[in-house]
Amino acid sequence: MSHERPRIAIVGGGLAGLAAAEALADSGASVTVLEARRRAGGRAASFEDPVGGGLVDACQHVAMGCCTNFLDLCRRTGLADAFRRDRTLWFIGPDGRRAACTPSRRWPAPLHLVPLLAGLRHLSFRERWTLASGMVGLAVWRERLPSPRPTALEWLRSVGQPERLIRLFWQPLIESALGESIDLVDVAAARKVVVDGFLAHRQAADLLVPMAPLGTLFGERLVDWLVEHGVAMQTGHFVNAVQRAADGRVLAVAGDGAATPCDALIIAVPWKAAARLAPDVVPPADDRFAGSPITAVHLWFDRACIDLPHAVLVGRVSQWVFRPDEATPGYCQVVISASRGVFEGDRDGLRDVVVEELRAVFPAARRATLVAAKVVTDPTAVLSVRPGVEAVRPRCATTVSNLFLAGDWTATGWPSTMEGAVRSGRLAAAAAASAVGLTGREPVADLPRSLLTGLLVGR
DSSP assignment of 94-121, as one string? Predict the structure, then answer.
């Protein structure tokens, strides 16, 4: 090499690309991030608040205590103070009764969940007992080859979980965590939610809610940190070609303006865009490799009417309602995962139903006037974790020795979440750094499992 430092280019300034850049910032490489949009952040984006000014997240993102790499990224880059840690999960049952469910701080995992399960007031004692047995059964479940793997719904029915319990607990839990319909998700993905998100550790189920817009956190503060640590950020820079040497190795990426030379390349864009850039190393999407939609209904009332920070609305079209701390007092956001076909695209009809559901469970909303509303749907918000998808999720390393992949759609061992995106960026960064003779930051370990949980699920 004729230049002083190895050059690593990252195409894509979403969370995966930014995480890769952070992992390489102190590696000794010259790192450049090329982002097509004017702002980095990818799907963790915000738009202008039409009522109160400022920014509103296009879709509410939250992390959990089990998201060790996402939390580590935030800690290292000074973003940890921008997240509120909530231990209490609020459920509002079909009859409007509220349930404050808080895991124990003292009891060892998984016994720490006993107070949480006891707090599910919309379920009978017998249903809560059946639920507990179902969680244990899912934890000890093992794949039995060569039988085809069932969906979460098929498995729950096969072990006798009642339909009412599925509708009032399992469905909102699984669909909110995985972003896909319970009748489509792989039972192994549902097991990961239960084990890593609830059973493994007393802090695993803590909810980490951003107290500032994502556009500010990732598009500004994280970008500023990267620039301060020597990363070159080029926004508004569209990449449409990868230049190769005769032996197949990547030499540069080209698009808007001059080509950007590199000794290693990380492609950190959605899978369809990645397939266009490198069709020989990114597998084409098939019926196992698809996206799942998430819809956010943004509502602005003339007064504050949601008196909880967030709540799961059980048995309704609305799944989660959030009241961001920094927003206009009358603003709230309702999130509907796996929103495929909801109201057949009738946004006005969906808005009206969501407003009526909020008024049914929040008395102050009945006296409030709706000032504005906006319905935002991302048709491919997350990778659909269907049975068979793990077989086609590509790893970060490719058949080209200096070309690597990152994104929540790659094989990280996690579903398509912010944690999965950060892990993918760190995996790709470590591989790219190794390819040029340097060391990048590897993913950090999961939360340690308690002795009881380890005996239950295996280590």
Answer: TTS-EEEE---SSSPTTGGGHHHHHT-T
